[in-house]
């Protein structure tokens, strides 16, 4: 998955703008809310898709016969890749 797969297309932005105009919404804040909500949904779904794909792959380096989501070492490596491995709750 690439970054472009997580971003709203220009066509989608135009459709949202048209929908707002069709409903008589002329306020910029409402348009911004609609755009950001649509973008958040795209990014969220892309993240889930990536995670499911990763977790469904077989663990090849640690334990045979299990999937990556079942392997503690694979999971720790994924957290490290995401920059979440050494953080404690409340740290940024």
Description:
This protein is mostly helical and 92 residues long. 55% of the residues lie in helices and 0% in strands. It contains 3 helices and no strands. It has helices spanning 10-22, 28-55, 72-81. Helix 1 (10-22) crosses helix 2. The chain starts with 9 loop residues before the first helix and ends in an 11-residue tail after the last helix.
Give the end-to-end Cα distance, rounded to a whole number of Å.
Answer: 25 Å
Number of helices: 3
Task: Please indicate the percent range of residues in DSSP E strands (runs of 2 or more).
Answer: under 5%
Q: How is the main sheet built?
A: none
Report the mean per-residue pLDDT as an integer. Answer: 80
**Total discrete domains:** 2
- The helix-strand sequence is HHH
Amount of helix = 55-70%
How would you describe the shape?
elongated
Uncertain spans:
none
